Amino acid sequence: MTVDGRVARGDRTRGAALDVAVVLATEVGLHGLSLAQLADTLGVSKSGLFAHWRSKEALQLATVDRAVEQWQERIIDPALRAPRGVQRLWALHQARIDFYAARVLPGGCFFASTDFEYNARPGPVRDRLAEVFGRWTAFLEHLVGEAVAAGELPADTDVPQLAYEIDALGITAALRSRLLDPDTAYRHARQGLLHRLRALCPDPTLLPEGLS
Predict the structure, then answer these.
(1) How far is 20 from 67, CA to CA, in rounded Å?
(2) From CA 154, how far away is CA 158, in angstroms rounded?
(3) Nearest to 127 by CA among 56, 57, 186
């Protein structure tokens, strides 16, 4: 099977542009992201980008989808390599905080920023963000449920509540690290979940005793 070189180049161009769009969205807001602004940043013509996205809204929706792919690649996929149970929950949280600490996105967490930005803006972009957030919540609850099923968390664990707490630690770290000392924010987020899981787990030796 042969691949049309023009199609491959177009896909690469589109992907590179969306990576820049995700960065810009964390700095100027997703609502503020436009084809003209992205073209200026990339040093290309707006008409060239118009071939990929016919409107500002189409670009915004594609940017959300690219941020999801980035989250999958940088946070979810590494965590899924850890053993199922509390170790996977811990690995997911660690990968998330590591991603924040690496400052991959100069404006902070894409989803923490856009969720606040769009919580009172009805429309397709808000709907897409709500869908993404719902899938993330369901994924967290699934991992907590796996740990319960494996006997690594008590059978009476409130699964939605623990998933909520895990996400809350991540969101708080993302927000506080932008305004206050980031190292303190990340340390508190890590310690908070580690202490919570070790207190719940019948075999705390599955988890680190402390942070190195």
Answers:
(1) 11
(2) 9
(3) 57
Report angle CA 61, 67, 70 to the nearest 5 degrees. Answer: 145
* Distances, alpha carbon 18 to alpha carbons 11, 14, 53, 91, 129, in Å: 11, 6, 11, 27, 16
CA atoms within 13 A on the CB side of 153: 23
What percentage of the chain reaches a pLDDT higher than 70?
A: 91
User: Residue 27's Cα: distance from chain center in Å?
Assistant: 16
**Taking a C-beta distance cutoff of 8 angstroms, is the pair 57, 67 a contact?**
no
In this prediction the pTM is 0.89
Tokens of 145: 């449920």
Contact 74, 170 (CB under 8 A): no
d(CA 23, CA 18): 9
C-alpha to C-alpha distance for 200 and 197, rounded to whole angstroms: 5
- C-beta contacts of 128-131 below 8 A and 24+ residues apart: 128/61, 128/64, 128/65, 129/64
Phi, psi of 152 (to 5 degrees): -95, -5
Q: pLDDT tens across 145-157, in order?
A: 999 999 999 999 9
Positive/negative CA dihedral, 185, 190, 195, 196? positive
CA–CA separation, 159 and 156 (whole Å): 9
